[in-house]
Amino acid sequence: MHELRELVEVRFDYAVSFTEGVFQCENPLLRSTLIKEEKGRRHRAWAVIDRGVMDAWPDLDRALTSYFEAYPADLEQIAPPLVVEGGEAVKNDEATFRHILRRVHELRIDRHSYILAIGGGAVLDVVGYAAAVAHRGVRLVRFPTTVLGQADSGVGVKNGINAFGKKNFLGTFAPPFGVLCDVDFLRTLSARDRIAGMSEAIKVALVRDATFFAWLRAHAGALGQGDARAVAELVQRSAALHLRHIATSGDPFEMGSARPLDFGHWAAHKLESLTSHRLRHGEAVAIGMAIDTLYSARAGLCSPALADAVLGLLDHIGFRSWDDALDLRGPDGRPCILEGLAEFREHLGGELTVTLLRGPGDGIEVHEMLESGILAALDVLRARAHGRRSLRPASIPVAAP
Amino acid sequence: MHELRELVEVRFDYAVSFTEGVFQCENPLLRSTLIKEEKGRRHRAWAVIDRGVMDAWPDLDRALTSYFEAYPADLEQIAPPLVVEGGEAVKNDEATFRHILRRVHELRIDRHSYILAIGGGAVLDVVGYAAAVAHRGVRLVRFPTTVLGQADSGVGVKNGINAFGKKNFLGTFAPPFGVLCDVDFLRTLSARDRIAGMSEAIKVALVRDATFFAWLRAHAGALGQGDARAVAELVQRSAALHLRHIATSGDPFEMGSARPLDFGHWAAHKLESLTSHRLRHGEAVAIGMAIDTLYSARAGLCSPALADAVLGLLDHIGFRSWDDALDLRGPDGRPCILEGLAEFREHLGGELTVTLLRGPGDGIEVHEMLESGILAALDVLRARAHGRRSLRPASIPVAAP
User: Fold this and answer.
1) What is the DSSP letter of A80?
2) Separation of alpha carbons A47 and A22, rounded Å
3) Using a CB-CB distance cutoff of 8 angstroms, which residues of chain B are in contact with residue A135?
4) Residues A112, A41: contact at Cβ < 8 Å?
5) In chain A, residues 76-105 whose CB comes closer than 8 Å to chain B
6) Contact of B53 with B119, CB cutoff 8 Å
7) Residues A386, A391, A397, A399: what is their CA dihedral angle, to the nearest 10 degrees?
8) Mean pLDDT, chain A cut into blocks of 10 residues (401 residues total)
9) Domains of chain B: residue spans and CATH
């Protein structure tokens, strides 16, 4: 027997830039991003735009075309943008994915051409997956247009679509060529989307950065009201922490069992599916964090004061930390939410690994969660919600079980 | 404007092992490969087998099952193997790809479970692509069963299927978990397949390793006759050079324009398509190397003696260095083969980069090839073939234009 062994190292050097007016001709960022690898040749690019973004910014495609026309020696827009539906539905069938692939073929987009993906997380996911597998990888420049996209998902290395009823069953790890975050886009979000996107920032503060958590508490009112400066600072600080994690965790493609930044996510994934995505991902994560923080306090890992602070912050920004789907029960009478733990383990592969809290900015991994502790956390959240509900009615419709 | 910049490094540590009797229970290699990351737990695995391999080794699935049954504490075969058609056709529609994905879903294969891919290059490509995108990457252990697979494609980091009439239009770069090469499989190959697979070994010797090239010349007769020891040494030396290139080139995922190991491949890809895959990939590469070696000599890059040595080695092993498809002409009267250069450039993206020869083991990159030089090389090969053909008839049927 004879063995050859090699260590294959792959380096991805990419920047996440925050700017305003990204498609205004005098803003050099897009041009400098596209020409950074090979100066002196003309770079071909094609854009895919989220319909929700086009609706809010109806001049967007004209601005993009004008931008390319302003730099004819460097840039070429090879075809009009493709406008696709946004939201989770775009990931549920393969029509959009396939349409993008067909255009890559027809437009002769090669591995050194660019696809520009402009939109919310779902559109970035489907465009990113198509770009990752066409020719084994076409250059992708992401323009996340939501708080969630700029704070977390749009700056990372994942893409995907849903299949067989499983979220992100198909996808790859594929670092983008670049990420350009235009904070202007955040101004036209609905309050619901803007708030929902903040939960990943709260999450990364809780497990990584006590100072950021303190800042979030100090600015909860401004954040809840959509103050532009506060929201811009939130997305930048959150993006920096997420990107730093990817670069320094030692496992950017998640080959191990741990996902230290998936605090609150085992319950969140299950809640999204139990509510058929009536809850936004961020809304579900807020509830998942509430559960896991209360669990951490009850398990003696963190103080009850931290749990109060987390629940208070969620309230203050405008999250709900309860949804009646938490009370759904299976044929055996068990709360369905508990299945989320097993499904989370299966999704990661290997051993169950869940992040809990020891303190603000201090996550800790555990490999078991006790059902009794989870049920106790749910009792606290249910009681809080019912207490509050008698004072003010739910602003988000609840589909009772 | 604010910029976050991080270097994301991903490390893949994988071994390519050469062995015999890989599914005999007393051979520890497969077990030790599957348990290497997490000892002490039971590892789930599912196999996909090339029908051509099953035909030659009808006891293979029973041997695999016996192997798993011999190590019940460590290994679990979660379902009977799936047998799929081999050859390029399996990459031409998505049926096999989709069937594998569906089984991954049904069998609850997770990111820490294994898919074992046993077969020729086409089967490894389609199974590898499915494994790479399911759950963003399930562990893949490859068992290449051909000379080409063990010497080159099966030890590398690529997978793919064909789409829109383009070879490998869809695929990813995804290092396998491990590669187990059982040289026993090479014994049951047809002479045609065994010989065709040797061209990538000749290629990597020519551009990287003069000593290996001298060894090939010294053993050409034994290789042509399928001497098992000589063939085993060829695949191991070739695999080591290919793997070393992936690990040390600085661009394992081919983000630049250069493909230093694609010597002879611009013409080869075009010939495969011009002959609708009547020519095997390896047969086309042999012809492509003959063209580019003659071109290199004519351009004064290497000596005429090296060109003679290369053509002589190809003859001696049993390759043909001419195919009448080289004379096919388009509507404009130009030889179709010349389109191969533009298509090669498009496939890589960026600037045209072709490797030529300065000496044995000494490739050099150029960014232009003159039509006149290519036509002159074709004239030499045509004349040689017609001279020889009058002595002995073609053993491979030629579909004349």
Assistant:
1) P
2) 14
3) 169, 347, 349
4) no
5) 101-102, 105
6) yes
7) 20
8) 89 94 97 91 96 97 97 97 94 95 96 96 97 97 98 96 91 97 97 97 98 98 98 98 93 86 95 93 97 97 97 98 97 95 82 94 95 97 81 37 32
9) 16-189 (3.40.50.1970), 211-391 (1.20.1090.10)
